[in-house]
# Entry
Amino acid sequence: MTTWRARHDEAVRKQAAALKAYREATDERALALLAGVEELGTQAAVALELGVKTPSVNQAIRAYQKKQDE
# Structure
């Protein structure tokens, strides 16, 4: 049987790994969206192709670019 502290520490490790994976996936998505803009010409065209709203594409790209500028 594990102690509550060991379970807590394991949960913290899992949370950190999940957050890292989420951040990496977010960057990958933004890079894919940027590639889509290069291919299709506009963020609106990418959004239309994906069936999402243009602001969501814009927001993902802007967040990635802001992160790169830091």
